[in-house]
Design brief:
Length: 294
């Protein structure tokens, strides 16, 4: 049960966790329940910040760890509930995936510090004492694929390893990205971006996926390719959260995937029990597909 004298901010790892929590809590409480993650509109995010005579229960990713102070409503405290986890981009088998990982000690302190700023507050940390946590988060440039960054920098006629970055990227990772971009024709032998490379840079995805879509467009099968690219980007093919999510996309049937996505977009249960079970995954895939199409 919620403390009637407090607004509650709960940190969860992913948007899927948040959507599930909102759906579960909304019928059980008189508080106004809000989601908060990066993909929401500005109006939806502002609604979570708005104070009033009502109690708020906000479920957020690490998007609310920093930035604008999250104020409790007048006469209320702010209680923080920290799951201790986040979704973090990592490279697995040459592909960048989102994996559920423990937050660092610095992030743990940052989340706790969201309360107690303007009035007394409480923070509940659901963290095992024996869990291994780093002191600080690993910089994104040191745990992500660098192909797209190398390509974007090359568009300005600059080599990534010549920039005085605050956090240095591994030289071997930069060279590996350059080698791959050269192999697919995005860079020439001197490291200069090619006409094809400029086209690939327009896709909001890693060059590996961009090259896949580029070739699919040449072969006249872009629509089917968009489905598989969206699955990869949304994590459906390589979920670290649920074997069921991976199973939805395991048959490699593009037509079947498109049919299930159509059902998801219409908000209808599909004929596939697995697809129905992972309805939110399908909706997320459809969102990414539409973003790629644009």
């Amino acid at each position: 049960a919620l403390d009637a004298d407090a607004d509650v901010l709960c940190f969860l790892p992913s948007s899927r966790d948040i959507d599930a929590a909102v759906a579960r809590w909304a019928p059980l409480t008189t508080a106004r329940v809000f989601p908060f993650y990066s993909r929401l509109s500005r109006a939806e995010k502002d609604a979570a910040y708005a104070t009033g005579r009502f109690q708020r229960l906000v479920f957020s990713t690490n998007a609310l760890e920093t930035g604008k102070t999250f104020l409790p409503s007048d006469g209320r405290q702010l209680h923080i509930v920290d799951s201790g986890f986040e979704m973090r981009a990592e490279v697995v088998g040459g592909t960048e995936v989102l994996a559920r990982r423990p937050i660092s000690k610095a992030q743990q302190a940052q989340r706790a510090g969201r309360t107690g700023r303007v009035s007394p507050g409480v923070c509940y940390q659901l963290i095992e004492s024996n869990e291994t946590r780093t002191d600080y988060p690993v910089p994104a440039i040191q745990r992500s694929l660098l192909g797209r960054l190398v390509l974007l920098v090359a568009m300005q006629g600059i080599r990534l390893d010549s920039l005085p970055l605050f956090h240095a990227a591994q030289h071997s990772e930069i060279e590996g990205a350059v080698e791959f971009l050269t192999a697919i024709g995005a860079l020439d032998e001197s490291g200069t971006i090619t006409a094809k490379g400029r086209q690939l840079a327009q896709y909001p995805v890693e060059p590996r996926i961009a090259a896949f879509l580029y070739k699919a467009a040449e072969l006249g099968c872009l629509e089917k390719a968009l489905v598989f690219a969206a699955c990869t980007e949304a994590g459906g093919l390589q979920s670290r959260e649920s074997g069921d999510a991976a199973a939805v996309f395991s048959d490699g049937d593009a037509v079947g995937l498109q049919t299930r996505l159509w059902y998801a977009r219409k908000g209808l249960p599909s004929a596939s029990s697995r697809a129905e079970k992972n309805h939110k995954v399908l909706r997320e895939v459809d969102f990414v597909r539409e973003a790629l199409r644009k």
